[in-house]
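Q: Is it fine to ask for two folds in a single conversation?
A: Yes, each is treated on its own. Send the first.
Q: Here.
A: Result:
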Amino acid sequence: MARDDVKKIRKLRNKLHETIKKTGINSEETKKISDEIDIIINEYYDSVETTEYPKNSEMIEYYDKSYSALKDITKELKKFPTVKEWNQYAKENNYLCHISLEYISKLDWNYLQIKVEREINFKKIEKN
């Protein structure tokens, strides 16, 4: 990652922490800063000659945990969550928002729904 990008992310991260303290985690200002960080990170990965995140990336760990939680909440709700429902749940439980899940998986929300529902149904079939 370019040194300038790292500096921008550090500066924004510090600004994000201060904004969370002042206005709370759910404020528009907090969301705006978080989105700015996401844009820088995603622009970097778009510019790199790769089609996926490195296997040792923390982002993959966050994705895996978030995806697992998405499957769990789908089972709990007995339906796939809406974007609004997921983003609220993700925010409260420190998971990736729907945009990040879409970006990392390279699937839009509807295809993620199909994937999750197929995996859940497959597990039900295996148990019977």
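Q: Second one now.
A: Result:
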Amino acid sequence: MLTTIRYALINLVKTPAILVWTLLFPLILSSVFMLMFSSIDELASQQTVPIVVVTPDDDEAGQTFQAFLDQLEDVNAQEGGVPLFAITYAESQDKAQALVVGSLQAEQPYAGYVMLQDGLPRVFVADDQSSSGNATVSASVLVLVMDTYCARLALVSDLLADNPLSLADPEVVQSLSEQALVTQQVQLTQHQPQETVRFYFALLGMAALFGGSVGLTAVQSLRPNTSSLGARRSVGALSYAKSVAGTILACWIMCFACLAITFAYMRFVVNLDFGGRDIAALMVLATASLLATALGCAVSAIPKLPESAKSGILTGIVCFASLFAGLYGEPTMELADTISKAAPALDYINPATQISQAFYSIMYYDSFEPLMLHLVVLVTMTVVFFALSVQALRRQRYASL
């Protein structure tokens, strides 16, 4: 049987269509995703808000406001973080307004500009020209910080009027200078969520199912009435059961090897982090490879159709299943989410969705229980597909070869 596995692998490697769909296609699409989404991920991690500040006058109010702005940068630098604001100073209000307006079409425009008027900061925010609404969030942050400054300035004025001696207390002065911590950041998932990883997970599901072409090609070569190789095998010394088992095992090895190369490319070239659970990810790929082989065998069992028609049916199944895994963009993601909420049972009959969600469970859950559920569903699908392909895999009698 080892000889059968070896020669079946050689035959599969020499089939160009298999290498194109199971190896080259996912590698090329991964590269395209990397070029498309690298700027999006970088922008999503950006926390600094760019603003313009009209240079304050060199008087008491101006020096106080300048110290406040400097403190915002110093606090974040001391904590090892990024500054809250990236401040650009302008000499006049007209120049500040020109800078803000000129940046509206940039990737990260200025949120607005600030000028000191009568000792209080006056904020001018830019209109939100983006569909994402990031400018609105940045403007809200700017307004909130300046309101905080005004509130503290009013508090100090009240203390000076009512109880000037209270400012001699170091604790009071420190409380006025510290930033209020009104929120606390917590992380509910095992890994920091990224919107773009959904495309990569859906791609892995599609690439795995395209591995069904490996099983389709190999099973067609086993049938004596469809290939000369199948005719020779049917009269050979090796039992038909061992020939079938060796061929299916070769299909699984071939499919898993292609997926493992794709995974390694995503992991080390695209820098897609799987939360340190690479072994679990390879387990999913191994199960998905066996499922793809069974799917190819099941399609091969369709009677009275040429191999080209069966290949078309397999491609249609893979593309249709990938549609509901959200591979084709934001509209398909919204469609898939809507269907998943309305009829969650449909996710259990879509192999592409199950493979994609298996990677989600690896990345975002601290328990392996959700992963086991997805693996059970994939194994169940594999058994069903192999059961449907029994007719094509069993020994048959022919009047003439």
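Q: Anything structural to flag on that second result?
A: Two points. Strands lie at 49-54, 85-90, 112-117, 120-125. The chain has 16 helices and four strands.
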